[in-house]
Specification:
Rossmann fold, globular, 9 strands, two-stranded parallel ribbon, 238 residues, seven-stranded parallel β-sheet, alpha/beta, 6 helices
Amino acid sequence: METIKGKNILLVGATGSIGAQAAKLLAGSGANLFLTGRNKEKLAMVAEACKLPATNYLAVDISDKNEVANLKEQFFQIFPHIDILINASGIGIIKQVDTLDEEDFLKTIMANLYGPYLLMRAFLPSMKELKKGLIINIPGVLGKVPMAGAAAYSASKYGLTGMMQSIREELKRTDIRITNLFMGGVDSAFWDNIDLRVQRDKMITAEDAAKTIWFLCQQPTSGVISEMVLQPFNHQAI
């Protein structure tokens, strides 16, 4: 396994349930960590728990190209290059299509697909210069299989899966690796504002989900985990 110690890692979505736990694991393993998330107050709390200086985190809306440009500038003021990019950000709007308005649809696409595109534009060139790196995205199981009421969410996550598969084809002559984590049924804040009857006590814990990301950061350089699926044992969709 590859060590995380000393690696320059950008973790996007550090204010979410999974991202916050992953940040602590990565910091504890000696990574050179930079965190970002939408909520400034939560981000500061996570950074403090990871014992990061104020220079190593920044509140960012990744669907805003100017904010991503600012993130890129601040990151490379601190680190000369990026080794691992983890995108654990995203929003979930679950509605039947006839009640799904344009604003919700576009908001979902912007956060879950356009934002990751902006991250690729900002940080992939650094990896291409060195011809190595690791990119981890979390399309979730709804990026592979549909669910009623998830038209916008699945559209964004299917798009993310396709985009990263296409980028993988562009990078075949490099050692830049891309991993898509299809994770479903995680007991996280994702479900707090979704009006569905779900059994959260039978879902994967946020801590175990974070451990999966931590593990994927250590995959051997001689190979790549192109895809990983993690689901509750009694609720497998893939």
